[in-house]
Amino acid sequence: MARIETPKRVRGTQDIFGDEQRRFAHVLATFERVRALYCFQRVDIPIFEATEVFARSIGETTDVVSKEMYSFPDRGGDSLTLRPEFTAGLARAFLTEGWQQYAPLKLATSGPVFRYERPQKGRYRQFHQIDAEVIGAPEPAADVELLVLADQLLRELGVEGVTLQLNTLGDAETRDAWRQALVDHFEAHRADLSEDSLTRLAKNPLRILDSKDPRDRPAADSAPDIDAYLTPAARAFFDAVTAGLDAAGVAWTRNPRLVRGLDYYRHTAFEFVTDRLGSQGTVLAGGRYDGLIESLGGPATAGVGWAAGVERLAMLVPETSPIAVDIAVIAEAEEFHLPVVALTAALRRSGYSTEGFVTGNPKKRYEKALKADPAYTISLSRMNGLPHVGERGRRATFHPDELRAIIDPITNGLA
Ligand code: ATP
Ligand code: MG
């Protein structure tokens, strides 16, 4: 008979197991805890949206929309896209679900996102993000709150060696003037630019500043900073953000080359970066996107937020240990199978993590149980013709009276 071939895991996807899974879960649990400390409300939104939700809010000229989206016609012929990020879907929900009435709205979410990229360490096609957004708050206090939240999350995860890089993209007036200065500068250096950056020059000149192509670096590094173009209002906004960070004790460094490509990005742009993950060093990134909601046909609405890669954070958190087994319950003879089922259930209902050993060779069950490294073992066997309840371990760790009240009613009745 022909051998049946096992289907392969799809390239760029992951089966998250063991220590890796525990770190992953630890990142999500810590995010859930910390976002609640900042009174951010959890929301859950669809994994797929109409393609135009992303095309219009992320922008056709970005890598994400032009090269990385998983888009497909569904059976009804509508073009759908697996979400490549959360912000666009949250903005769509803000408009379609009438969430305007709750503005300003502090939102947190997490889950899988999809991008067709070249897979490598820290870069997948299905990966996971945690995400925090404040929609409807135009004040710098919202930017500060989001950054302090991100900083506390990283601290609580015990992630070390991460720096917050901060920049401002100014207001509309600032940005137009700076953009023109950049176009003039890069036009004068056309001959030195990569092909990608020549395209960017036409569509998205700010993006040349953060090009990773070494050919672009001399022109990018010598380009004018935004500072000379900041209006007094834009400078005041940035000063308010940095003063807030200083007041909250969050360290930051200025990176004048940090940009977000789209026209509606304003003011704050930031990344938390580490040198411990090679070229996948950005763990958390975001900024202010006043204007995004308008690009989806909504009213002028301020917004600011960030997203972080769960896998990249998980790679940075300390090693975890497997679930601790409080109690192992062993049936050393077949006749004790049901009492062990009863005991195991009773112990678990009382909050003890319990593993029952009722299958396999009865004589080997005890050895098997010890391998689980329980704090306490209870074994039911027959000795000299009588049922015997053996107990061993650090019962002091538990509440001895409570334990007796669970165990005795079940074992007393054994014939
Ligand atoms: P990069 O420059 O690494 O491609 P990006 O600018 O595309 O990142 P964002 O869109 O800002 O990333 O997404 C926020 C975070 O999501 C990133 O900082 C990173 O931690 C994570 N991330 C982005 N793409 C991937 C991916 N393909 N696999 C795993 N994590 C990712
Ligand atoms: Mg990317």
Name the overall outline.
elongated
Please give the alpha-carbon distance between the first and last residues.
Answer: 54 Å
CATH superfamily of the largest domain: Bira Bifunctional Protein, Domain 2
- Tell me the major beta sheet: 8 strands, mixed
Low-confidence stretches: none
Domains (count): 2
Structural class: alpha/beta
In the CATH hierarchy, the third-tier topology of the largest domain is known as BirA Bifunctional Protein, domain 2
Features:
14 helices, binds magnesium ion, 8-stranded mixed β-sheet, single chain, His-tRNA-ligase, 2 domains, 415 residues, binds adenosine-5'-triphosphate, 4-stranded mixed β-sheet
Blueprint of the fold:
Elements: H1 18-37, E1 41-42, E2 48-50, H2 51-58, H3 63-68, E3 70-73, E4 79-82, H4 87-96, E5 105-114, E6 126-135, H5 140-157, E7 162-168, H6 172-188, H7 195-203, H8 217-221, H9 232-248, E8 253-254, E9 266-274, E10 282-288, H10 292-295, E11 303-309, H11 310-316, E12 327-331, H12 337-349, E13 354-357, H13 362-371, E14 376-383, E15 386-393, H14 400-411
Parallel strand pairs: 1-5, 7-8, 12-13, 12-14
Antiparallel strand pairs: 2-4, 3-4, 5-6, 6-11, 7-9, 9-10, 10-11, 14-15
Helix pairs in contact: 1-5, 1-11, 5-9, 12-14
Main location: cytoplasm
InterPro entries: aa-tRNA-synth_II, aa-tRNA-synth_II/BPL/LPL, His-tRNA-ligase, HisRS-like_core, HisRS/HisZ
GO molecular function: ligase activity
